[in-house]
Give the backbone structure.
Amino acid sequence: MASLAEIRARIAAQENKSNNKGSNTQSDNAVYPHWNMDEGTTASVRFLPDGNSKNDFFWVEKQIIKLPFNGVKGDPNFKQVIVQVPCMEMYGDACPILAEVRPWYKDETLKEMANKYWKKRSYLFQGFVRQNPLGDDKVPANPIRRFIISPQIIPVVKAGLMDPEIDELPTDYLRGLDFNIKKTSKGGYADYSTSNWARKESPLTEAEQAAIEAHGLFNLADFLPKKPTEAELRVIKEMFEASVDGQAFDNERWGQYYRPWGVEAPSGSANAGQTQATAETSAPAVTAPVAESTSAPWDDEAATSSAPVQVPTSTPSSDKAQDILAMIRARQNKS
C-alpha cells in the first residue's frame, strides 16, 4: 500500500501531465473545430487564398500514417497508444510504409491490416467563419481561421469549382462564395456530405478585408509536418515493423523523434522538457512528433478505393502480427 505522501505525489504528477496536454492546444484558437458542431447545424465559412502564391489551390493536403502500439514499454499507465508519422508521399517521395502495405491488398487475410496502416488524408484551408453554431467558440484576435477538412467534404469543394455556373473563384474578395459545412449523421457516424457552396456571391466586409491587411494570409504549407530526415525515416521504418509485430512503444529508443500523445520525451534528448506540437501546428526547429489528434476529422483511405474505410482501433495480438510478418517475409524471399 502506498503512503499518503506517495499517493499525493502520484496525483500531482498526473495533474501536471494533464495540464501539459492542455497547453499543447492552439492558444490562439486558430483552428476552427467544426467537428464539434451539433448534429443538424451549419457553419458558413469563407475560404481565402493560400498565402503561398505558387500554390494552384487554396488548400494543402496532409497525409499521415497512424502506428498503433500495445502500450508504452515500461509504463503500465498506457494500454493502447498511437504514433502519427508523416507519409513521404506528401512530399512527392516514395513512402516505405505504403510500399510495404500495397501488396497486402492482394491477400484477403491482410486487407484489414493494410487499411490500418494506410495513409490518412486531411486538407488544410483558411478563411473566415461567417455563421458560427459553436456557442463556446472563442474567436481569436486574428479572425482568419484554419480549417481541417476531411476527404468526405473535399469532393463537394471540388465539384463547386467545376460548376460552369460559377464565374469567379470562390475565394475572390468581391465575388466569392461562402461554403456551408453541414453536420448530419449516417450509420452512426458524423456525415458532412450535404455541405454545399452558397449560390449567391458576396464581397468580403470591410472588417474582413482589414483583417487580411493587418494579419496577412497564412502560408498553409507551414502547418504541414516537416519532411523526415534520413535518421527519422529509419526510425519510422523501425516503429512500423514494431507496430505490426504487436510490440509496445519504446520511448527511450524512438521518443526523441516521434512519440504518442501524452508521453514525455526521454530525458537527455533534444526534446526533453518540451511539449508536443499538435497535429496542425507548424514544425518547430527541433525534431518533434506528429501528435495524435483525437478530434480532427481524419478519414481512412484504402489503397484500392477512394471511399473511407472504418479502421479497427484495436492492435492485433503479437501472435497474429508474427503470422502476418512471416507471410510477408516469405513472399519477399520468394520474389
